[in-house]
Structures are given as C-alpha cells and as structure tokens.
Amino acid sequence: MNIFVCVKQVPDDYVEVHLNPTTGTPDVEGIDQVNNAFDTYAVEMAVRAVEAHGGSVTVAAIGPEKCQNGLKNLIAVGANKAVLLSDPALLDLDEAATASALASLIAKCEADQGESFDLIFCGKESTDEISAQVGAMLSETLKAPFVSSVVEVEPVEGGVKAKQETESGYAVYEMALPAVLTVAKPAYDPRYPTIKSKMAARKATIPMLTAADAGAVKQDNRVTCLGYSEPAKRQAGVRIQEKEAADAVAKAVAMMAEAKAI
Amino acid sequence: MAYIISEDAKELLKDAKEFCQNEIVEQAKQYDITGEWPREIYEKAIEMQLHMMDIPEEYGGLGLSHIDQAAIVEQIAWADAGVAVTLNGNGLALKPVLVAGNEEQKQKCCDIIANGGWGAFALTEPDAGCDAANGKTTAVREGDEYVLNGRKCFITNASVADFFVVTAMTNRTIGTHGMSAFLVYKGTPGLSVGRHENKMGVRCSTTSDLVLDNVRIPVENRLGEEGTGFATAMKTLDLARTWCAVIGVGLAQRCIDEAAAYSKQRVQFGKPICRHQSIEFKLADMEIRTEASRQLCAHAITLADMGMPFSKESAAAKCFSGDSVVQTALDAVQILGGYGYSREYPVEKLLRDAKIFQIFEGTNEIQRMVVGRAVIGKL
C-alpha cells in the first residue's frame, strides 16, 4: 500500500497566540513551527498500515525551506520518503489553491517513482486555520473517493474500509482506490522517535521542488481572509465572600434565581 | 542557561521533553506515593532508547556526544530524578564492563541493554560502604569456576537486572588488591534479590539487597585479572559521579522552575512575592548554584572525552551538585512556604529526592577526600 500524507507546519499549539495589534494578524513570530497534530496522526496511521500490509509512506509539505525539519521528524517516526514543495509563488494559498498544488505534487511523485499512490491522507484539519477543507478539495481535484475524520483504515477486497468518527458515533465506508481520507485522532498516539531513528533522519536529505519542478501552476486564491478577531475575554466572576457556608449558599441561590438560571 | 549542544541534540531534547511531559511528570507523582517500580514508564523509555545512551557506538550504541547525553539526562531528571537514576543504572553497570571486560563481555552486556534489559552494579555491602575495600563477599576459585558468597546492599535496579557486576574478595589478606569483579547473570543458582529499601526519595528507582549463596560462575565471567576489581570499581565511580551530578542538576532546575512559577503568582503585601527582594535573591542563588554545578559537570565530561584525568573534577562536580541540589530544594520549599511543606504541591518530593545526591555513588565526604587528596598530592 503506497500512502501519500499531506503535512502542514503550524505554530506550536502549546503556545497561546494573540493578534499583533499593528497588523491585526496572529502574532506567531518566534513560535516554533511543528507538524500539525492531525497530520501526525495521519502519518502514524499510514506507518501502521504499511507495517501491517507492506508498501511505503511518503510525506509532503508546501512551504519554506525550514519545513524540511518537520518532514525529517516524520522520517524519524516511520515515513519512508519526504518531499517539500517550496516556491515563493506558493505562499499564502487558499484551500483550493493548496489542493491544486498538492495534486500536481502527487502527480509528480507518482511519475518519478513509476507507481501511483493507493491512499492520500490529510489531517482532518490544521490547528492554526481549522478550515478542514483541503482534503475534500484534493479528492475533488483527483476525482477520488473521500471520507473525512477517519480513525481506522484497513484493506479489503478491491479497496479499503474506513471507520469515520461522527458526532453521534461511527460510520464505516468501503471504497475503491485511490482514495483521499482525512484523519481524526485514532485510539492510539503517534509513536516517539527512537534516538537512533531521529539521528538518522536528521541526516536525511529532503528533496525540494519548485512549482515548475512539480508542474504546479499557481491557482489564484478565490477566498480572502478579511480579518481576525480575538475571542471575547471572559468576564470576571462574582466573588461570594460570606463567612458562613449557609449565607454563601443562600446568596448563590438568590443570584442564580435573579439571573433566571434556576 | 544549559549545556551547549549540537543542533541534532536540540531536536532530540525536544523529543525527550515531550516524552517527559506526557509520560513522566504526572505519572511519577502516584509512583512516588506507592513506591512501585513504574514499569510502564520504563517500557516507553526503552522504546525511545533512553535506557541505552551509555552504550558506545561500536557496540551498537547511539553515537551521542556526552554533552548531548547530559542535556537529555538532565531533562529526564527534571521530570523525575528516580527515573533518571534507574536509566542511569544501566550506565553504571556497563562502565565496569567497558573498563575491564573483554570484547565478548562488552558486546554481551551491551546487547542485553540494547534489547531492553537492565544491569546493576553491586559494590556496596552492609559493612562496606565508603570503605568498599572492607567487603566480606568472597569469590573462591574451584577449577574453572568461582564460588561467590556474600551480601550486597543498596543495589539500584537489582530486582529487575539481567546482569550484575559483583565485586568480591579473591584474596582477603592483601586489601584492595585482593578484590576482583565478576559478571553474574540473572537466574544463576544461588543468586537472589533480598529486601527492597522503602526509600525517602527517588522512589521511581528500585533499590535492594543482593544475596549470593554459593553462586557458581565460570572463570570467563571475571572482569579483567584477579585483584583488579577495586581499581575497576574506582574507575567506574569516577565516570559515574559526573552522571550523578548531572541528574542532580536536572532536579535542581526543576526546583528553580517550580519556585519561580509559584513566586510569580503568589501575592503578598500587594505584589507577587518574586518582587520581594528576599525571594528574588533566593531564586538568584538557586540559579547561580545550579549553573555552577552544570558547568562543573560539563568540564568533567569534556576532560573525560579528551582522555585527560578527570577524577578530581568529577568528584568536585558530584559533591557540589549534591550539596547544591539539597540547598536549592530547601529554598524551593521555603519559597512555597506552607504549601511547600504540603504533599499537594510538588516541591516536598523534590526535597526528598534531593537528599540522596549527597549520599550515593560515594558520599560527599568521600568526594571531598578525593578532591582534598588531589589538591595535597604527595607529602
């Protein structure tokens, strides 16, 4: 099973991000770029599938040269190959333009390796912009079946079976290959790299392709972000400072009644 | 400040930090209460190969520089000193094999550890602690075998070890020159693990007696020549002391971080207590002491890497780091005040963990003897 995993580098989501008051955009200066968490789940799912059934995992990103670091980290946890599409023309793409560029990159990788991918994985969304659209648009571009929020995948006769997480439970689909799946949090965590695999991966060379190398034609953005606003700040709570517990409870009940909460 | 490490090691350190945050920091609290050996933590650490950083590259090791290794060990100790002590126990057991063993012995012990096994170094006895040469454990040669009898105590990892390096007297009439070192493998008849210590701190590490009752081992299990056991043990401790100091530094850094975080949110007399000079200066002293310890470690490691004498520097690092971490943990408890004394907050554990750093791998009194004698030289 040959699996292609699309990976986005995002600001480390352990860090709280605020808007830059001058530019009005998220101030991510100085925040480490890491692989999007859902993409790391997709890589782990792909690596497990390949360990069980054979094949290879290719990880790919679009972005500046420094994205190589994130891709190396994925080689350390089992990805077999990595490729970076890096071109100043491909900055700040909207979802459709990203999907178009990824489709070109996939075609280029398939041509180079002489065989096509059976599955294309994306994380179900990125933790920075959270639009959750690239996977679906990529499947449309590739004219391939699509299932979102997948937590399990296994090969079946003529294709794969994918278990989708829904708001009320799970749905199970079967589909022919190639297919595009977006991956939610499975029952397992991504593995930690071993020291040896990490040190070997650090020495790996990640091929960097320009848009021209990949045959990608920049598609104009059709969606424009007009602006960002911070979530409303939580209002300060009310302190109940009665000395006796009974008085405090009575006051709390009175306040809730006044607010028509009870 | 921190060790100056390679770009590759910075990436490894990020992984180690993530591992520590996810798998050790919270989990260790419960194990500290129960005293149970946290097998699940170690199984995950083994998967990451954090247990085999002491294996040389030529025997299948990882090829980390010692300074890079120190930064990772410090990070693990930051999360839990007992976990670091356990993982370091493998290094302690490997060192005498690497110092005195033949190729076959070295490869065998490295393979045991690389495959997820554990080693233990068994020198101390009930009546022979600092005075290690006064050991009562004997090894009597009978044909192609040695018969070992005696009792070792305070042996880190004894209850889980797959191999032991045991020192025993092959000739009791000639003092230190009568001591030899042997490899004894788990499951050898007559070898058993005795009482487990219910320790004050570093409770994620296991410490037990080791009993040798007519343990017969082949002659080829001897490490080096007869009579070289004491020298092997001393060379082992020379190296091990620095690692002990490195662990102390990680623990001290945790004390600083916990105390600094608390001091920023605890308000008294209308301002965070870190704005009171009494607390600010205490934090400054904690930092100065810890950084000085760290640089003593770095210097000892650098000398060892360069093949230069480092006994004195290693002893100085261990002694200073051990004394420092105890004072730094005391300061952390003081900064947290009543909360520092409460088990609801993390720093009382740090103080209990800290005390052992003045005691194990040679008490700080012994370290001062090593340093003092190096200063005085021959009279």
Structural summary, described in words:
The complex is a heterodimer of chains A (262) and B (379). Chain A is an alpha/beta fold. Chain A has two domains: 213 residues, 3-Layer(aba) Sandwich (Rossmann fold); 31 residues. Chain A is 31% helix and 23% strand. Chain A has seven helices and eleven strands. In chain A, the strands form two sheets. In chain A, strands 9-8-7-10-6-1-4-5-11 form a nine-stranded mixed sheet, sandwiched between helices. A two-stranded antiparallel ribbon of chain A has the order 2-3. In chain A, strand 4, helix 2 and strand 5 form a beta-alpha-beta unit. In chain A, helix 2 crosses helix 5 and helix 3 crosses helix 4. The termini of chain A are far apart. The mean pLDDT of chain A is 94. With 379 residues, chain B is α+β, with helices and mostly antiparallel strands. Chain B has three domains: 108 residues, Butyryl-Coa Dehydrogenase, subunit A, domain 1; 109 residues, Butyryl-CoA Dehydrogenase, subunit A, domain 2; 146 residues, Butyryl-CoA Dehydrogenase, subunit A, domain 3, CATH 1.20.140.10. Chain B has eleven helices and ten strands. In chain B, the strands form three sheets. A four-stranded mixed sheet of chain B has the order 1-4-5-8. Chain B has a four-stranded antiparallel sheet with strand order 2-3-7-6, with helices on one face. Chain B has a two-stranded antiparallel ribbon with strand order 9-10. In chain B, helix 1 runs parallel beside helix 4, helix 8 packs antiparallel against helix 9 and helix 9 runs antiparallel to helix 10. The model of chain B has no long low-confidence stretch (mean pLDDT 96).
